Amino acid sequence: MPQGRSTNRRRRGRELALRVLFELEGSRRDMESALLYQAPEVGATGDVTAFARTLLDAYHDNAHACDDAIQGTTTHWVLSETGKIERTALRLATAELIYVEDVPVPVTINEWVELTKQYVGEEGAHFVNGVLGEIERSHSGEPADD
């Protein structure tokens, strides 16, 4: 698959996953039915839906570890008290960073920052960027910024 098409598929898959996980928070709906509902709403093709499912499964299978990684970046805020879009983006981005190996880390971070910016603006995007940078450093063994 050409690079541009792969990037677009993943970008659209991230947005679909964001919409699904956003819908599921506080709901009794299951992931698969939410995904099957949301996919046609955004005109997702099979490959876009498959990438969204990969992200959703990565988070679902590792939810506690992802939330712990996010919360471990600071003692100054609590994940449950962040905005719903930011929280959802952080959860999926963390799952992608740690558990989806075929996507370069800088691409993952940039894509989630841009998606967050699209939905909540610059301030939310800066927050997500900072948290993801800390997660990336902690998982790569780099020292944290002081």
Highlighted features:
mainly alpha, N-utilizing Substance Protein B Homolog, Chain A, 146 residues, 7 helices, single chain, globular, 0% strand
Q: What do these coordinates show?
A:
It contains 7 helices and no strands. The chain is an all-alpha fold and 146 residues long.
At a glance:
The chain is mainly alpha-helical. It is about 75% helix and about 0% strand.
Write the layout of secondary structure elements.
Blueprint: H1 3-24, H2 31-41, H3 46-61, H4 63-71, H5 84-99, H6 105-120, H7 122-140
Q: How much helix, percentage-wise, in residues?
A: over 70%
Q: Superfamily at the CATH H level?
A: NusB-like
Distance between the termini: 41 Å
Low-confidence stretches: none
Assembly status = single chain
Give the rounded overall mean pLDDT: 90
The main β sheet shows up as: none
The geometry reads as: globular
Helix/strand order: HHHHHHH
User: Which CATH class is shown?
Assistant: Mainly Alpha
Q: Provide the CATH architecture.
A: Orthogonal Bundle
Record field, number of beta strands:
0
Content of β-strand: under 5%
Total of domains: 1
How many individual helices? 7
